[in-house]
Design goal:
alpha/beta; 6-stranded mixed beta sheet; 28% helix
Length: 302
């Protein structure tokens, strides 16, 4: 039977109340810890036994098909804050680029790193991808996990981590007073003073088939196409906006409330909600736990 998986972005500072979400979390089964929400969401929509491809390879394949490279990762533009004893990623440090800025960064990067076996390419969505001529054995972290945190404990790990860490340091120096950043500064935008390399893996010849639908906004799930209305059947929703925001109200109205209605009607067997590193599961039976007390939704994560 069908199930739906909702991913919610928890703000690092100043969360706002969300009564409907709090009602659902209060009635859900006891939460469980999970390490990779995208892997869980992918299992919801993929045929049994289908291996999840890397985040970057999936996004790049959807953007431009097969590419000639041994390994690819995302190179997300970020803004760091230098403090007395650490470098911290700003709380709003994940930045978006205009198409011209993305192309400008890629062109200049490829001029500087020519003949190194590394190149940068800008996707149609202005995502930056870094392509390598040999595979890297390295573990990386989603930049959303790093927001507001010291970057040191989130840097790449593994056999080839030194190569990626060196590239991080070199790109920080390259970006210092970069021409694209001059234009951003004059427009009152935060400068791009780092690229966060993550989500790497071998490029794909084709995207894997999925049996469900996706909605919302996520660099991995966007590759499988998006729906803009409530849909029956198994699906993954990467919520746009944080609970309590205007964007969240649209997510709640368009996808979350219809999913709860389908659950009550028996058209869904399970509704899963993940926030940070916790997952909550709701069934039609769980929805009848009306006696459970609501509380601020972020207190359910403690």
């Amino acid at each position: 039977m069908s199930s739906q998986y909702f991913r919610i972005n928890a703000p690092k500072d100043g969360p706002r109340r969300s009564p409907f979400l709090e009602q659902l979390l209060a009635r859900a089964d006891m939460s469980v810890s999970m390490s990779d929400w995208r892997a869980e969401g992918f299992r919801t929509i993929a045929p049994p036994g289908t291996a999840m491809p890397s985040i970057a390879a999936t996004a790049l394949c959807a953007d431009r098909g097969a590419v000639d490279a041994a390994w690819v990762c995302l190179a997300s533009p970020v803004h760091y804050v230098a403090e007395m004893s650490r470098v911290r990623m700003a709380g709003d440090g994940m930045l978006s680029l205009t198409p011209a800025a993305a192309e400008g960064f890629a062109s200049d990067f490829n001029r500087i790193w020519k003949d190194t076996g590394i190149c940068l390419t800008a996707g149609r969505s202005t995502q930056l991808f870094c392509l390598f001529d040999r595979p890297l054995a390295v573990a990386t972290r989603d930049p959303r996990e790093v927001l507001g945190q010291s970057i040191e404990e989130y840097l790449p790990l593994g056999e080839d981590a030194a190569r990626l860490r060196q590239l991080i340091s070199e790109t920080e120096m390259w970006l210092f007073e970069h021409g694209v950043n001059g234009a951003r500064g004059r427009s009152g935008l935060p400068v791009v003073n780092g690229l966060w390399f993550w989500g790497g893996g071998a490029p794909l010849p084709v995207l894997p088939e999925v049996q469900g639908w996706v909605a919302g906004d996520d660099v991995f799930f966007n590759a499988f196409g998006a729906r803009h209305d409530a849909a029956p059947g198994s699906g993954v929703v990467a919520a746009v906006g944080e609970p309590g925001s205007d964007e969240w109200q649209d997510t709640e109205t368009r996808w979350l409330r219809p999913a709860v209605a389908q659950l009550r009607a028996g058209r869904l067997s399970r509704l899963e909600i993940s926030v940070d590193d916790r997952r909550f599961t709701l069934s039609a039976r769980a929805l009848r736990r009306f006696w459970r007390r609501r509380k601020p939704w972020w207190e359910f994560l403690a």
